[in-house]
Write a structure and sequence with these properties.
Blueprint: H1 2-25, E1 28-32, E2 38-45, E3 49-55, E4 58-65, E5 70-78, E6 82-83, H2 87-93, E7 106-116, E8 122-130, E9 133-148, E10 155-166, E11 182-193, H3 199-204
Antiparallel strand pairs: 1-4, 1-11, 2-3, 2-11, 3-6, 4-5, 5-7, 7-8, 8-9, 9-10, 10-11
């Protein structure tokens, strides 16, 4: 009898060990926190000033396991949430020479590769879709910080990233060449861990 009990105990230890191994091998999934996630851009205006814009409505998900180097991001940005601090300019940017928001109401981003440089930096490569055109962009992630938030006691990861693109890649050619082609990208965001992410979210992050 003691021998059978010992065998059952060992079996449970093996099962628990496998469960822990599987759990640690899988990347956690986080949901982008909309009030703290603002994709931004900068563009020079006629060499006189620097125009800043941000999108106030973004939804997305993050898969992250820094121990194994697994990571992925999907995001959807509402074009009409653009805010440059001047409503008439925002209205003009919705027109066809720029975002053409009537035909293309969203921007989409899906990562294709993430390379970590230590625990707090990474290079994020992905496909940005704007005005129906999909092109690769590269973002340098300059800060990754994950911890339990004192506000909600949930695990949160925060990020800072930057990069650039040529707007003409996507057919955004309004006022070229008076306004430059190159646009600087800035992203500050955080994401909250999901205990039970839906199957559709897991599938999107594969």
């Amino acid at each position: 009898m003691p021998h059978d009990h010992l065998k059952r105990t060992r079996s449970w230890i093996v099962v628990l060990g496998l469960a822990v191994s599987i759990a640690t091998a899988h990347a956690a999934i986080y949901q982008l926190n909309p009030p703290h996630t603002y994709p931004q851009f900068e563009i020079r205006h006629l060499v006189f000033s620097l125009i800043h814009g941000q999108f106030n409505k973004t939804r997305g998900y993050l898969r992250l396991n820094r121990k194994t180097g697994q990571a992925g991001v999907v995001a959807k940005i509402w074009v009409r949430s653009l805010d440059t601090g001047f409503a008439p300019r925002d209205h003009d940017l919705m027109a066809k020479p720029f975002f053409d928001a009537r035909r293309y109401p969203y921007l989409f981003f899906r990562s294709t590769r993430v390379v970590f440089h230590g625990r707090h930096r990474a290079t994020l490569t992905g496909i940005l879709t704007m005005r129906g055109v999909s092109r690769p962009v590269v973002l340098q992630v300059t800060r990754i910080h994950c911890a339990v938030s004192p506000l909600n006691q949930k695990r949160v990861c925060g990020f800072d990233a930057q990069g650039s693109l040529e707007r003409s890649w996507f057919g955004v050619d309004g006022l070229l060449p008076m306004l430059p082609d190159r646009v600087r990208l800035i992203l500050n965001a955080d994401a909250v861990i999901m205990k039970h992410p839906p199957a559709a979210v897991r599938k999107a992050l594969r």
